[in-house]
Amino acid sequence: MYCDHIFPHVGLPIPLEQQLLQRLPSSEGWYCEEIMRIGSFQVQYIGKSSAGDIHNTSKVMEGSNTFIDLLEIGQDKKQWAIGPVLRPTKKEKNGFPCLDWLDKQPPKSVLYVSYDMLTSFSDEQIKELAMGLELSKQKVIWLLYDPNNTDIYLGADLKRNFEFHAGFEERLDGVGLLVRDWAPQTEILAHSSIGGFLSGCDWTSCVETITMGVPIIAWATHSDHPKNGFLLTEILKIGLIIREWDQKREEVVTASTIDNVVRKLMASEEGDEVRKRAKEMGEAVRQSTEKG
């Protein structure tokens, strides 16, 4: 909907302030070959519904922007915003040690770090991320796996062995937790000890963190993620950004940059304000679903 600053179906300007439009992430470098293949498969079904379309969003998430209304005008069919569509959270722990660990942490004290299945960092970037998290001196739960080396269909144990700076895992013990397998993200974000989410900003994660009232640190790497992150950080103002999409995105993000942003969210007055807005938005989204 943000494409080229013009709403594609009706040729109308996007209802955003000009200053924000000028900072909107470009589309350059969004899509890798795998994303293009998936998109080519899906595009054959776009626009073929007769009754209308459903969207995993809500009027609360959309804010003052009227993208859903513009879609309805441009396509001349009904558009339903039925979000948030989430997997139901369960009260029982279901054998996940990470949830037991979170139970022992103070409220809003833990940063959750996780990426989607299509994101894979280089060894150098993983080391910088680990050093940045350690430098920040914040509690962290880090869901760390490599999507390119794990066959989720065959169940093959091909997980990548990450190499951290000397002593990192030993020093993490007690103040952080590495999770090297699937974990229940919705339950993690809903936990009272979570105070922030470092994410690649896939839309599912955005919907979950908005709904749970958790502020985000946006670190987009591909597809729609840069503009999802822009929505949360610049428009809704419920997060901070690691690095602008158009600024040296091929370079490794340094440990000092990661440290600074994590501290800003988790241990500063600015971070407290962001967290307050995220909490208020989460409450509003949840209330909107209760009303039906």
Automatic annotation (TrEMBL):
The keyword Glycosyltransferase applies. Keywords: Glycosyltransferase, Transferase. Residues 273-292 have a biased composition (Basic and acidic residues). One of its GO terms (molecular function) is UDP-glycosyltransferase activity. Gene3D superfamilies: Glycogen Phosphorylase B. Pfam families: UDPGT. InterPro entries: UDP_glucos_trans (IPR002213). Signal peptide: none annotated. The keyword Mitochondrion does not apply. GO terms for biological process: glycoside biosynthetic process. Coiled coil: none annotated. Residues 272-292 are annotated as: Disordered. PANTHER family: GLYCOSYLTRANSFERASE, ZEATIN O-XYLOSYLTRANSFERASE-LIKE. Belongs to the UDP-glycosyltransferase family. This is Uncharacterized protein. It comes from Solanum stoloniferum.
